[in-house]
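seq:
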Amino acid sequence: MGIPKKHDLDWFRDGFRPHFDDWVIASVDRLIKSEALIGFVFMACAIDYLAGFWWGKSTKGEVDKAYIGFVDEYFPKNKYNSKDLYDSLRNGLVHMFTIKNMKYALTHGHPELNLRVTSSGHMLLNADDFRDDLVEAKNKYFDAVEGDDVLMDKLKERYNRDGFMLPIKLTLV
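struct:
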C-alpha cells in the first residue's frame, strides 16, 4: 500500500470529492428535510454508489458483497447489520418500494428513536441520524482513498468504466 500519485490526489480532492458532496450529500440533505422517505431511498442508493467505487471492478453478480463489505468497513461499528441494510433497504426500499422482511421502520425528526426496537421487532431508523452515519462512512472511505493507492486505483477504475454524473453545458445547434 502506497500513497496515491499527486495528480490523482489533486483530481480527487479538487474534483471528485467536492462533486460527490455537491451532487449526492447535498441532495440527501434537501430530501430528508422535504421528503424523508425519498431521502432514505437516495441514501440506500448512495451507499450502493460508494460501494461500487470501493469495490472497483464490476459489481455484476457481486453487488451484495460490495454493499455489505462497504457497510462493514466504513459505517460505525456495531450499529447496523449490513446484510439487513442490503436486503431491506437496498433491495426492498430501492427496488420494491417496501421494507423487505420488515426489518426496519423509518422515521424523521425523532433522533430519540433512532436504532430503538419496536414491540413488533422493527428497528427504527431516523433519517437525520442515518444521514450522519452515511456521511461519516463516506468521509472515512474518502480519507482512506487519499492515503491508499490501491483504493485510489479501484475508485478510478470504477470512475473510468462507469463515470459520475456531471453537469453538461448545453449548447443548442
